[in-house]
Amino acid sequence: MAKRDYYEVLGVPRGASEDEIKKAYRQHALKWHPDRNPGNKEAEARFREAAEAYEILRDPEKRAHYDRFGHAPAAPPGGGFGDFAGFDLADALRAFMRDFGGGGFGGFGDAFEQQSARGGPRERRGNTLELRLPLTLEEIATGVEKVVKIRHMRACSTCHGTGAKEGTTRKTCPVCHGSGQVRLVQRSILGQLINITTCDRCRGEGTVIETPCADCAGEGRRREQSELTIQVPAGVSNGNYIPLAGMGDVGPRGGAPGDLIAHIEEIEHDLFLRDGDDLLVEIPISVAKAALGGRIEVPTLGGGRAAIDVPAGTTPGKLLRLRGKGIRSLKRSKPGDLLVRIDLATPAKLSDRGKKLLQEFDELPEAKPAAPRRPRDDAGR
User: Fold this and answer.
1) Ranges for the J domain (predicted)?
2) Which domain holds residue 232?
3) What is the CATH number for 258?
């Protein structure tokens, strides 16, 4: 089902201030809070929807992106806040607790820390790991397959992730009887409230280990080194990232694995500057070539060369364009261009004959410089 407009969800105009957005969210959160609507799935969905809208609109950067692109993710394969496909009741409750405190809803922060909205034993998800992925311009231009080595927590091969000694099993927690949580009913000005806390005995897992695995000390996981292959598409840039689902740390005792996030880092090139999908290179030419014009060869990314015509009367700083010789784009099918900025190679030393020729040239009427003029705003660009 298509998502509703976030402004519509909170009932505020698109130009609403931060205070107006916060006030509207609080009204919706109190109206649809699960404690006021026990067992009401529609109210729970409205509560989550309001929290999701608030999380985007309260953040200036996320709000600006939403105003421009709607519900679309920030950029493939990364580089932004992404969507909220995994925004569950736990996230919604944390958002409410963060900005409005307990307010009669105490206890939810711990109870839902890593627990599904349906309740029950908590599955502790593993950590999300991050790494830097340095790339050359040549690799960025074509796309590349990178092999990296990481150290991350993997399921213990001895106990197969249970944390219990081989031949034994985990037992149901005698305190919470397998629910992973302890509930306390309270009354407040809002009516009957249920204060949910994580079971201290089993740490919310619903089961306990009587005889832990000796190899992993009951954790159900061990740190190992893995070799991973990362497919990098052409056209990525600094700020992009590539998520690898499930390649982070596995959770303790059978918990789901976290993700691995590879952050793109562009290595500075010795010759080319990058401007989006375009490349820029500076080529010095002789005074004669600038005056007479002619064809020159320029280097291209990857070690090739391409010919380009220099118009007669070319001045320093002039930009010439080789179309399609830039970087392949993430968003367009056509690659960018190679921009060639012309510079004049003035000889530092001259022979007697060279000096004589230049002096003769300087005496010609057409060699006289033009009158002084005001610089252009775009000079040298």
Assistant:
1) 5-70
2) 106-267
3) 2.60.260.20
